[in-house]
Specification:
The chain contains 14 helices and 5 strands. By secondary structure, the protein is mainly α. It has one domain. A 5-stranded mixed beta sheet has the order 1-4-5-3-2, sandwiched between helices. α2 packs antiparallel against α11 and α4 runs antiparallel to α5. The protein binds zinc ion.
């Protein structure tokens, strides 16, 4: 649920489905590299992936440790007291309380996000951002997140205050509608705040894409190129939106570095997500998971209130306990949602192979993506199971070779 509320500033955010591991370079080699350079590159990719995953694990650990200490040391009660002093109105007090926590979270999380989002990207020569550009993108993420989060928080708190132990039922329903509305408006109202989108201009690429769309009977309203290169050297593409807002977006880094054949393969993969209705499946599964998660956490939350001497579910100081349970639920279920995502990726890959009939270009595109995104092509199976939303490049290439 945290993911629904949070709008990350860099990279593509919910509800986007992308073609490559979005965390995974330097510019493409003009000529084949020497074998030792290849293995050097591989070990560099392994190191990069390892550090990135360590940072994620550290961030998760930090979240639980801080939440626990905040409850245990009475910091939450102290901040709850400040919030109720500011206003008698429970909803205003809630917003003050949430703002204090949000600020604390940003400050505590800053070293990790600087290390992972700025320092590491520069160290591995993946970033095109200056420090100020990076900071500005981060601030934009926060400013865009606030108007999305505030109404959600208020309705959530209203349900908590008025529906007693059944608060999870209306909250789950509201979150479902929120995710559908967000999926509908994000490509039109939110993504353009982070990137500039232009219709595909290259005539030969455009005609190939339109030809492919006609072949499979798809009328995608928008096929856009976005200025991914302002932030990164990595390449990506995605299918976004639902209803009238659905569109396929291609990073300018992809268009600049890949051949028309390779872009066609990537495009066909995105088309696969669209034709196979992956976004709707994600929303449906996400909704079931949200209801289940809210139900489970509502019960755990109510049962654990006395551990920290809280008495009511709507007590401000107790809310970090609820976010801790929600965090735990999303931690436990994230390998399952990654599993579903990897299954979608595999079927979109097969769809691309079937529609283009061009196995070689697909494999070349995969290799290039791995290189340009510094992806670990063969992660440890356990790492892949736990953290990766996409099958490893090695597996994807093997599947294509077998096709
Ligand atoms: Zn995909």
């Amino acid at each position: 649920m945290r993911d629904v509320v949070r709008v990350p500033s860099n990279g593509l955010f919910f509800p986007v489905d992308s073609v490559s591991q979005p965390r995974a370079s330097e510019s493409l080699p003009a000529s084949p590299k020497e074998p030792h350079q290849e293995s050097q590159k591989e070990s560099q990719a392994k190191r990069y992936s390892r550090i990135k995953i360590s940072v994620r694990v550290a961030g998760t650990f930090l979240f639980f440790a801080v939440s626990f200490l905040v409850l245990l040391l009475g910091i939450s009660s102290w901040l709850g007291g400040i919030a109720t002093q500011v206003s008698n109105n429970p909803y205003v007090a809630l917003l003050v309380f949430a703002a204090l926590f949000g600020l604390g979270e940003i400050i505590l999380g800053l070293p990790l996000s600087f290390f992972s989002g700025f320092y590491l990207e520069h160290r591995f020569k993946l970033s095109n951002q200056t420090f100020w550009k990076w900071a500005w993108e981060g601030m934009k993420g926060i400013f865009v997140g606030i108007p999305l989060t505030v109404p959600l928080l208020l309705t959530f708190y209203f349900c908590l205050r008025n529906f007693a132990e059944y608060w999870w039922l209306p909250v789950g329903t509201i979150l479902f509608f929120f995710s559908v509305v967000l999926a509908r408006i994000a490509p039109i109202l939110i993504f353009p705040l982070f990137y500039k989108f232009k219709p595909v201009e290259d005539a030969s690429l455009k005609s190939r894409i339109l030809h492919l769309c006609a072949k499979v009977g798809v009328n995608v309203e928008g096929i856009f190129v976005f200025d991914m290169s302002k932030n990164t050297k990595k390449a990506n593409a995605a299918f976004t939106g639902i209803g009238k807002s659905k569109r396929i977006i291609l990073g300018d880094t992809l268009v600049a570095n890949f051949t028309d054949d390779e872009i066609e393969s990537v495009f066909a993969h995105e088309l696969g997500h669209y034709k196979l209705k992956h976004l709707w499946t994600m929303i449906a599964v996400g909704t079931v998971s949200t209801f289940l998660g809210l139900y489970v956490t509502a019960n755990l939350y109510a049962a654990s209130l006395p551990w920290f001497a809280f008495s009511a579910v709507d007590e401000l100081a107790a809310l970090p306990l609820l976010t801790m349970w929600l965090g735990l639920y999303s931690l436990v279920t994230s390998p399952l949602s990654n599993m579903l995502s990897r299954a979608h990726e595999r079927s979109a890959d097969l769809y691309a192979l079937r529609t283009t009939g061009n196995k070689d270009s697909f494999i070349n595109a995969m290799r290039k993506l791995a290189k340009i995104n510094l992806a670990d092509t063969s992660p440890h199976p356990l790492i892949e199971f736990l953290f990766h939303s996409h099958p490893s490049i090695e597996k994807r290439i093997h599947a294509a070779e077998r096709y």
